[in-house]
């Protein structure tokens, strides 16, 4: 067995790979400079030694292979040490393909939005269906309490990322995978740091579709015109799905919301396939489920087993995750950062908590949200919220001022729509700002693809402390603007 050292081990996919390699009997070590849950908790649970910070001393015991995460750049002390000694190194997708994919039947889930949830849902449904797949999810799947599993099954389920592979391989990660079935949920412009425009994104997805053999299938979301276009030249059979597009093969109809989730009826080529319930909310999650229904059926899972899998799905950490509720105030953690994801997440929360006021706290942290590419469309994304707190741009010094997203302008645009909004810097200041301004039964959604300075736990702690005090009337919301 080999010794693998993972540089950037706390990334969602890297931590999952660490666990998968351990399950195969390999020795695994790692290092990272930015450690936060849920993946730090996952690595601790697995017993992977993680060095905090990058230092050649972390490589004192020479690894057989050094895996370089895609967030790692030249100049990293460990990377430079490895290069100077001409040690063997590889990217995560290279190792994943070599160790786990060759000769297997692989389902790869792609799309601008919904990859993680759809992958976790597919892994669970196929498990209930008896296929016992190996899987890797870019988050902790609650049904398994883990972001990965390694089995002896012929089936593998992977989250396929269109982001680049490594500093030495700027192509998408999903180009290294071996899809028998490829899901393309949707395609929009994203990752403004590596894709110059929408056409470049679509080209990446067209290339992915071109990996699928003619004996496989491309499961494509027809409600997304760019996904439809990207898949149009597929040599593999198309298995289209949609809520709205009437020409899709797989359709969901009679979508209704219940207190615990939603129910919908599925047809295939106009013929009844089954009625399904899913304990989560939002039209986008119905589309995610429809993609999984199609993929599972293609691999022979019976409709009643698919229904059982959907009905018992427990979601993914950091995807509309209820972190706690204190004194009637619910605190939600979500990964949303692209404006479409923000809009759909807040709309889903409004359905999940009907009649309750909703506050959105947004951190521009992803590259696409840190740049001004979506400046004009972000105001629409917050329509479901009664008030919005915007944090300063994370790592703003890394983005030229002329290209940088402006939280102040977003707040001004929201104010012009009559929305209550403010810029507040820092998790502690946000908590102080929110406490007197939360209405009874408020739902607070913290939206960030990072740790957000521990905002969720700090807010819950402050709410618990307030519980011991006499009730005080909430302060009136002042004029929109900046604070902290």
Characterize the structure shown:
The protein has helices at residues 12-23, 39-46, 77-85, 92-101, 115-128, 198-209, 225-230, 283-298, 303-311, 339-352, 367-370, 378-381, 407-416, 427-434, 455-467, and strands at residues 3-7, 27-32, 50-52, 65-68, 89-91, 105-110, 134-141, 146-149, 155-159, 164-166, 169-172, 179-184, 217-221, 238-242, 250-257, 262-268, 271-278, 321-326, 329-334, 358-362, 387-390, 420-424, 443-447, 481-483. Helix content is 31%, strand content 26%. It has 484 residues and is of the alpha/beta class. The chain has three domains: 3-92, NAD(P)-binding Rossmann-like Domain (Rossmann fold, 3-Layer(aba) Sandwich); 103-311, UDP-N-acetylmuramoyl-L-alanine:D-glutamate ligase (3-Layer(aba) Sandwich); 321-483, Alpha-Beta Complex (Protein-Tyrosine Phosphatase, Chain A), CATH 3.90.190. The strands form four sheets. It has a ten-stranded mixed beta sheet, sandwiched between helices.
Structural class given helices, strands, pairing?
alpha/beta
CATH homologous superfamily classification of the largest domain: Mur-like, catalytic domain
Q: Whole-number average pLDDT? A: 91
Q: Main sheet? A: 10 strands, mixed
Observed structural traits:
484 residues, alpha/beta, Rossmann fold, UDP-N-acetylmuramoyl-L-alanine:D-glutamate ligase, Protein-Tyrosine Phosphatase, Chain A, 3 domains, 7-stranded mixed beta sheet, 24 strands, disordered C terminus
Outline the secondary-structure elements:
Blueprint (H helix, E strand, L loop, with lengths): L2 E5 L4 H12 L3 E6 L6 H8 L3 E3 L12 E4 L8 H9 L3 E3 H10 L3 E6 L4 H14 L5 E8 L4 E4 L5 E5 L4 E3 L2 E4 L6 E6 L13 H12 L7 E5 L3 H6 L7 E5 L7 E8 L4 E7 L2 E8 L4 H16 L4 H9 L9 E6 L2 E6 L4 H14 L5 E5 L4 H4 L7 H4 L5 E4 L16 H10 L3 E5 L2 H8 L8 E5 L7 H13 L13 E3 L1
Parallel strand pairs: 1-2, 1-4, 2-3, 4-5, 6-9, 6-12, 7-9, 12-13, 13-14, 14-15, 19-23, 20-21, 20-23, 21-22, 22-24
Antiparallel strand pairs: 7-8, 10-11, 15-16, 16-17, 18-19
Helix pairs in contact: 1-2, 5-8, 5-9, 14-15
